[in-house]
Amino acid sequence: MNKKDVTRTITTIIGEITITRTYYEDKSSKQKFFYIDELLNLPKYDHYDPVVKGLAIKESFYSNQSQAGRIIGERIANIQELTNKDTTMFSIPRQSINNWIKSWNVNIHYDKNKSTPRTLYIMGDEKYIGCQDLDGDIMGKAFVVFEGVKEVSKGRRALINRHVFTCYSTHPWEELLDRLIEIYDYEQIKEIYVLSDGGNWLTAGISELKLETFQKVQHLLCLFHYKQAINHITTVKEERVEIFNSFINDRRKDYKDKLNTYINKHPHKKDTIEKKITYLLNHYKAAKHMISSSIGSSMESHISHFIASTFASRPKGYSVKNINKYFMLNDAKINGINIFNTYLQTYDKGEEVIEYNEIRNETSTIKKKGYLPIVSIPYLNSSSVTTNIFNKLSYFSELKNTTKII
User: Fold this and answer.
1) CA-to-CA distance for 364 and 341, rounded, in angstroms?
2) N or C end: fewer C-beta atoms under 10 angstroms in the chain?
3) Has this prediction a pTM greater than 0.70?
4) Residue 247 has what pLDDT?
């Protein structure tokens, strides 16, 4: 039995659209369906067009979910003003955007780069992020992979072919290695330099990067942290300079003797000084390697701009069940992937893989199962959100042929 004139309201990029359609029932299987919904590939019980959802998800990684809801809501209202004088401002709820991200089945993989360098540099560090379902915080582990440094202007340098990888894992080095094998011909890499602050989880996993006997893997300690440890030993500027000069010029044994003299000079800080001396001596070789290297560490600024600004700049918590998806999408944004385009290709595809080539700046979809044609909104198959408004309206002229718009 069919039911006519069933209404559905959808928020689109040009405002709310209400359509009426017929509710069909298959005579043999008794399965009920809306033919128009299947024709347009619209998810069931969804009040938002996929274009709106894709824009909101993309914007949430450049600001936050609440701000993204306001920005996209304002954009919709501005476009709607062209066709409707009675425009009502609205904001997409933050929880709606959060639900869209959680229900989005996407897994982004990267094509191999066209060329593999002989020398590879890796910076690593961690950032603690508020958690909803743990007693403590989520320890996000971030890596920045690059092939060297180039000067882009006077006094300003940039990393060559930078690639960011972030994860929440007990085996971060294994996951990083999988990514490196994915984007490089790993056997062609002869030297790998790891720049870090010497944290236990960082130094413990460096050796895992060496897969071939001819490969050289070396740890370089960030001098900022090395000097910071010296500053914790003494607050006297002259003594700090004296310690660092001893590190540069003296043998390790003489340097150690020099450090130990400060235990007697500042007995009220004995525990702190002993702890910092242990740190300085444990990372003595790594700090020496950094001094002899032409590459400096910029990991602190990367953590601040790419991780903290998105996940820790506001008091909010994430679930351990979803944090790796947020990391994956944030990495995709940093690595140059168009999140909006990726969403339109995969929002209704179930298990889907998006391959991205950083050199060609192209995306391609690999289907795991059989699905309907790629994008539900016809005009988006060959256009972007910046398409002329008349092209957008042409989509709704197509709707009039099969539906009744109230």
Assistant:
1) 11
2) N
3) yes
4) 95
